[in-house]
Amino acid sequence: MIEAITTFTAQHGPLLAIAVPLIASPLAILMVNRVAAFIVTWLSAVTSFGLAAQMVTITADGTVLSYAIGGWAPPIGIEYRVDAANALVVLIVSMMATVLLPYMRTSIEQEVAERQHTLFYACFLLCFTGLMGVAVTGDAFNVFVFLEISSLSTYALVAMGAAKDKRALSAAYDYLVLGTLGATFFVIGLGMIYMVTGTLNLADLGRRLAEVDAENRTVRTAYGFIVVGLGLKIAMYPMHRWLPGAYTFAPTTISAFLASTATKVAIYVLARFVFSVFQIDYPFERDTLQFVVLPLALLAMFTASFVAVFQQNVKRLLAYSSLGQIGYMLLGLTLLTATGLTATFTHLFAHALTKGALFLAVGAIIYRTGGPMMHNLAGQARLMPWTSAAIVVGGLSLIGIPGTVGFVSKWVLIQAAFEADLWPIAAAIVASSLIAVVYVWRLVEVLYLQPAREGAAKREAPLTMLIPIWVLVVAIVWTGFDADGLVSVARTAGESLLDGGFVADGARIIGVPGR
Amino acid sequence: MSLLFDTAFIGTHLNYWLFVILMMTGLYIVVARGNLLKKVVGLNLFQASVFMLYISMSKIAGGTAPIEIPDPNAVYSSPLPHVLILTAIVVGVATTALALALIVRINEAYGTIEEDEVLEIDRAKSLAETAREDERDNEEARAV
Question: Per-residue pLDDT tens for B66-87?
Answer without folding.
Answer: 888 888 888 888 888 888 999 9
